[in-house]
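Bench notes, afternoon.
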Amino acid sequence: MINTWTDTKPQGDAAELRIAQWFLERGWTPHKTIGKVGYDLRLTCDVEVKHDLQAPETGNAAIEVSYNGQPSGIMATALASCSGVQRITLGGQP
């Protein structure tokens, strides 16, 4: 028996929803694409970017975790940090 696109579409849609939920739980915002595009989901998230001018000299990186008593930086968003010409990507949410 040959499965057609219409036969397998419900399973594909369910898989997309599971993946979208996985990203949503980690702080990303999934957007379902419509029409003829080369992908199914577009993802957006907040990213805090820091440029540490001292890191190349000291070998250390300063990571902000709160500001005025509120979570910030790596505690509130994904964090991307760069020092000099190197890009350092750190974890966090997402």
